[in-house]
Design a protein that fits this description.
The protein is of the alpha/beta class. It folds into 2 domains: 30-148 and 286-350, Response regulator (Rossmann fold); 151-277 and 364-377, Response regulator (Rossmann fold, 3-Layer(aba) Sandwich), CATH 3.40.50. Helices cover 43% and strands 18% of the residues. The chain contains 12 helices and 14 strands. Helix 6 (177-192) links the parallel strand 6 and strand 7. The N and C termini lie far apart (98 Å).
């Protein structure tokens, strides 16, 4: 009798252990994914665009059965474009709120700030708004790039200049990590294309009056001006060029001219401005889901998505594939999936190197022509010939 009692006790213990293991492995009713974005502050323009895309992806996923059979809830909080606030939010996401997964914040600055917190808690992070190579040079194994690395942003632009015989440059940059990575890459590629950098200057992030820098760049004799920064830098330099009366043969600025807002702010002065874009809608693009994303975004929000929105939506698609591949919410298995996947999304091809840095995605080069953003490089995808002054 005692033996029977002990056997029953052992059976019950094993049954309970297996039951508890199954409960722990099962997906919850709702999978919660946290992300902080600069809905106010210096990144508000892009932050709002990314929020719209995340919520659109969430709706599409839930309309199609969710992830692992569970409903998805994307929780977006305003980090006010402030790194310290972003760190507080992600710490709370992981320690108090029990988020199942997270997306990275917008900008290399804020992404770099939260990396230690996410690494300490074992969360994989898709860098949905960051491209500075420095993020992948710190030894973290949980960050995975989606953007073309910042150092390659200007590659297509400089190649295009070389073809058209334009070879003297002025390169100016804000002093944040992302902007300086673009500038460093531009100088490297210019050397490879045998182009002359006649003027190079870094200025404090947030400096509004760029007249003296524009004047110095003009006086250098450079044919082309490259401005490495975000939206504010592109607008401030565009206005400075008008004030000093310089019309370089080509004016390139990162980030800002890829947004429709640039045309709204600059008006006719936007004409001819070049930029890099991670994505532009093109009917001939073979990327799966690109048309659905574009048409849904326009229908829901009444405006066209910027590439930052396409990137956020694609991050959702990529994360969903990693979860599906891992078959669970086990964050280590999801990390391994993100490290090894070679897949397509509405943004293009996803694939990372051993450090987690993206190397399969490439940037398009665009130019504002007659009130419309045209693709001018690569030749296979261009919607218009580039125009030089």
């Amino acid at each position: 009798m005692a033996r029977a009692g002990r056997s029953k006790g052992v059976f019950l213990a094993v049954f309970l252990a297996l039951s508890l293991h199954g409960a722990a492995s099962a997906a919850p009713d709702t999978i919660r994914i946290g992300v902080s974005l600069g809905l106010t502050g210096k990144y508000a323009e892009v932050g709002s665009m990314q929020k719209a895309a995340y919520l659109l992806w969430m709706d599409h996923v839930n309309e199609n059965g969710g992830m692992l059979g569970s409903r998805v809830d994307v929780v977006v909080e305003d980090d006010q474009s402030d790194p310290e606030r972003a760190v507080e939010i992600y710490r709370r996401f992981m320690e108090a709120d029990g988020m199942d997964l997270v997306f990275g914040p917008y900008s290399s600055e804020l992404t770099g700030a939260v990396l230690r917190v996410t690494a300490d808690h074992g969360y994989p992070v898709l860098a949905c708004g960051a491209a500075s190579e420095k993020l992948w040079q710190q030894g973290y194994t949980n960050i995975f790039g989606v953007y073309t690395p910042a150092g390659r942003y200007t590659l297509g632009f400089l190649e295009m200049l070389k073809v058209h015989g334009v070879d003297s440059l002025a390169i100016v940059s804000a002093d944040d990590a992302f902007s300086m990575s673009i500038a460093e890459g531009a100088r490297k590629w210019a050397t490879r294309f045998q182009q002359k950098v006649l003027y190079s200057r870094t200025f404090p992030k947030g400096l509004e009056d760029l007249d003296s820098i524009a004047r110095e760049a003009m006086d250098s004799g450079a044919q082309v001006l490259l401005v490495c920064g975000h939206f504010e830098e592109s607008v401030n330099m565009g206005k400075a060029l008008s004030r000093v009366g310089w019309k370089p043969e080509a004016f390139y600025a990162s980030v800002g001219p890829a947004l429709d807002r640039f045309l709204e702010v600059m008006g006719d002065a936007a004409q001819g401005t070049f930029s890099s874009s991670q994505w532009e809608y093109h009917p001939s693009l073979p990327y799966p889901g690109a048309r659905q994303f574009y048409e849904s975004f326009v229908r829901v929000y009444g405006k066209e998505p910027a590439y930052q929105a396409a990137t956020a939506y694609a991050c959702g698609v990529i994360l969903g594939k990693a979860v599906e591949r891992s078959g669970s919410l086990d964050r280590e298995r999801i990390r391994e999936a993100l490290q090894t996947m070679d897949t397509m999304s509405p943004l293009g091809r996803y694939g990372v190197d051993a450090s987690g840095m993206q190397y399969r995605q490439f940037s398009l080069i665009t130019q504002w022509q007659d009130g419309k953003r045209q693709i001018v490089w690569p030749n296979e995808l261009r919607t218009s010939e580039p125009s030089f002054r």
